[in-house]
Amino acid sequence: MSTIALIDCNNFYVSCERAFDAALVGVPVVVASNNDGCAIARSNEAKALGVKMGDPIHLIRDRLDKHGVVVRSSNYTLYGDMQRRVVAAVEQFASEVEIYSIDESFLDLEPFKDRDLVVHANAMRAQVQRWTTIPTCVGIGPTKTLAKLGNAAAKKNPLFDGVGDLRDAAVRAWVLDRFPAGDVWGVGRATAAKLAALGIVTAGQIRDMQVKQARALGTVVLERLVAELQGVPASAVEMIEPQRKGMAVTRSFGTPVRDLDALMGAVAQYAMRAGEKLRSHGLVAGQLTVFFHTNRFKKDAGQYQGMRRIALHPMTADSLELLAAARRGVEGAWRDGYAYTKAGIMLDDLVASELRPRTLFEGDSDRRERLMSAMDEVNARFGRFTAVPAAQGFKRDWRMRAENRSPAWTTRIDEVPVVRA
Amino acid sequence: MPPLRLHDVPFEMVPHQAQLLLYSTPAGFPSPAQDDMDEPIDLAGWLIEHPAASYLMRVSGHSMTAAGIVDGDMVVVSRAVEARPGDIVVALVHGDRTMKRLRRSGDRLWLVPEAEGYERIIVDEHVEIWGVVVALARRYRT
């Protein structure tokens, strides 16, 4: 039997904002998504006021103002650095750490299982809070699904005092019987509806499903879930970052884009960024998709979605190749007369660059590789997009809107917090 | 022995893809210094012992000049070490970030300035010790 924990930062983005701005402590805070669109993190006070995940900020503006809710633009530079610190604080408490998302990590606690794991988990939480100020909850169980569920239980039920230990069969049964089926990790809305039709509404009932019945509902995931809820691991903690299947660089525009040149400029920047991402992971891509569309929520305005998929042959991580493909795509899909609010690039068929099938007639790829690494170096040293191909353009009036973004407190020397003496 | 016969073979059965392996062989003399190479001195690494728990802050004000910390200095604030009396600390006083010397006087802790004209502050429920100043960095000119 394995011993797995999930550590999850409470209201992570809000907690990061509060770490360096005491004025945000104790008041309702909402962090808005890219372009200040939707609520993507809420302090407990904001949750209590009824702000929901994904609420469009402009639709709830009045309510936010009335209750004095502070809205912060998302600051991923800060959140990424704080995540790094949280993971570092956790490392000594586990034999393996699998970063699952920006605010959650799975931990292998097998070597520590003879200790009092609740004490162990609390020591870990204390260390994270001491190093980063960020509060966390921990779930412990024999499988990932149960660890995740224990964590959710710890968040909801103050009885657990921050650590939901589901290793004990009686505790596990008690929690599972009260846990909504739809909230179980991996149960989507469609599956939840199918389950509900069978009268299955709690995690405990999923656990008691016959394998045949789970299979009949049509998903392998569900079958695995039944096993995991029974305490049989379907997946050990994955130590190696799974090979990425695809990646995307997408963003909303601060001001709608109406002309081809401006869109090209934006898409070119995404292509450069995508190339940089690929190279940093040592990957090449076989397919590029470029898309752009108008604001779907503006029903009265003209609607159009442009999208082109382009095969990359040979597979490449060369920004200039990606850029050329993206430009071809944009040219092909472009329609005049619309106000575009979002564009993006997706890359698929990713493989490690050393496994890339070689083709004849690849041209002078060595020189290109040197150019790419020189570009990456310049951009890393002097700030992103110092070195850009001319097509990318320098005017950036379509840049993201982020009116209330906090400084990069921990990563830029001219933005570090000031201390009064 | 049966006579040798030739057949027509469908095109898709003919192997028409060959794996091409590319090798590179380094040549030339290795550098004689290679085995004795050191990394350049990492000053930041020396100043910041616990990077995951340390935060840089810029000093504004003159209340710690006698402690050798002046306006505009950069300090390394660590949350990995426990604050002890005698340490220079960063504290939140009613939410405001301030840097003072932590002192014990009788059974109370105080935040004590080290310059003329500043008041000391008692550590009560409105004060949170945020971190300990563990290092200082200053540049005189560019």
Provide a descriptive summary of the structure in words.
The complex is a heterodimer of chains A (about 425) and B (about 140). With about 425 residues, chain A is of the alpha+beta class. Helix content of chain A is about 40%, strand content about 20%. Chain A is built from 14 helices and 14 strands. Chain A has a 5-stranded mixed β-sheet with strand order 5-6-1-7-8. Chain A starts with a strand and ends with a strand. Chain B has about 140 residues and is mostly beta strands. Helix content of chain B is about 5%, strand content about 30%. In chain B, strands 1-2-7-3-4-5-6 form a 7-stranded antiparallel β-sheet, with no helix packed on it. In chain B, strand 3 and strand 4 form a beta hairpin. Chain B is elongated and about 110 Å long. In chain B, about 25% of the residues are buried. The model of chain B has no long low-confidence stretch (mean pLDDT about 90). Chains A and B meet through helix 4, helix 5 and strand 14 of A and strand 1, strand 2 and strand 4 of B. Strand 14 of chain A pairs parallel with strand 1 of chain B.
